[in-house]
Design a protein that fits this description.
- By secondary structure, the chain is an alpha+beta fold.
- The chain has two domains: 8-120, D-amino Acid Aminotransferase, Chain A, domain 1 (2-Layer Sandwich); 128-281, D-amino Acid Aminotransferase, subunit A, domain 2 (D-amino Acid Aminotransferase, Chain A, domain 2).
- Helix content is 27%, strand content 28%.
- It has seven helices and 15 strands.
- It has helices at residues 29-33, 51-65, 72-85, 153-164, 208-219, 232-235, 266-281; strands at 8-12, 15-18, 36-44, 47-48, 91-98, 114-120, 128-133, 169-173, 179-182, 186-191, 194-197, 223-226, 239-244, 248-255, 258-259.
- Strand 3 (36-44) and strand 4 (47-48) form a beta hairpin.
- It binds pyridoxal-5'-phosphate.
């Protein structure tokens, strides 16, 4: 039985506390308007995975929204403090940077940003996932495209919808009808040994794991294409898989009512093994 509430350790406003007593002020911008940025990364055997890439994306997301991030050393110190007091060697680490307190005027950012670092239980990895196509689309030119923003309600709604249908993850299309991404993952497919994923201009998040897998493909001589495609392409693929910091590389066995070829397939497994070996040897590539 899962312990509830799960163990969590939180750093907020320069102080370490446990997840139950950590509190955000009622006028925090992120709470009122979703104006903030975040990162989620895995911690395995007490080592954060790809922290430099995640911190670089946090800085870039914050800069795009005009939120001044604290010095990187203070984020690193907060991460260390949280991990030193979290009781488990594996964790899900969430770094949130809100636009600070709004003083009641949500469109003005007048306060210093608020840094929150939280460690909680790392969900077990599963080999495969079932996707359900979301009935809502992502605007490829939306104001928050490419930013890992705390405005996440549309993704939460898509994933809740998928879960209600018995699936694990949502398949989100963009308003052009093209494959975009999962609710909290990037999507890939393999056809005739060519590995495809949607381009960033589809509106997908440029995932850290997506970047690592693209590098592995290039290094290992696999043919890759960033392809705009309709969802029927997935049903005709030899393999479909997802990537994210918590899933790594995960095969897809079913989309809506259609069964796909047995998953994880050959190239999916190869990429998972290459990623695992790389991160074991170098957790901060
Ligand atoms: C919408 C979305 N796309 C893709 C990803 C995968 O990104 P990453 O590999 O950086 O975890 C995530 C991760 O949470 C996400 O929320």
């Amino acid at each position: 039985m899962q312990e509830y509430p799960p163990p969590s350790t939180v750093w907020i406003d320069g102080r370490l506390t446990d997840g139950r007593s950590a509190a955000v002020p009622a006028l925090d911008h992120s709470l009122l308007t979703g104006f903030g940025v975040f990162e989620t990364l895995a911690v395995r055997a007490a080592r954060p995975i790809a922290p430099s890439r995640h911190l670089a994306r946090l800085q870039s997301s914050a800069a795009t929204l005009g939120i001044a991030p604290p010095p990187e050393q203070s984020i690193q110190d907060a991460i260390r403090a949280v991990l030193d007091s979290f009781p488990l060697p594996d964790a899900r680490l969430r770094i949130t940077l809100t636009a600070g307190d709004s003083e009641g005027i949500p469109f003005l950012v007048s306060a210093p940003p608020r840094l929150i670092v939280a460690a909680s239980r790392l969900p077990a990895r599963r080999d495969t996932a079932i996707l359900a196509t979301a009935p809502w689309q992502k605007h490829a030119d939306g104001a928050l495209v490419g930013i890992k923003s705390t405005s996440y309600g549309d993704h939460v709604r898509c994933v809740r919808h998928a879960r209600q249908l018995g699936a694990d993850e949502a398949l989100i299309l963009n308003t052009n009808g093209h494959i975009c991404e999962g609710g909290s993952s990037n999507i890939w497919w393999v056809r005739d040994r060519v590995v495809h994923t949607p381009p960033v201009k589809s509106g997908c998040l440029p995932g850290i794991t997506r970047g690592l897998v693209l590098e592995i493909c290039r290094r290992d001589g696999l043919h890759i294409r960033e392809t705009e495609a309709h969802p029927a392409t997935l049903l005709a693929a030899d393999e479909v898989f997802l990537t994210s910091s918590l899933r790594d590389v995960q095969g897809v066995s079913q989309i809506d009512t259609s069964n796909l070829p047995p998953a994880p397939g050959e190239i999916t497994t190869l990429l998972l093994n290459s990623l695992t070996d790389w991160l074991d040897a170098d957790p901060d590539p």
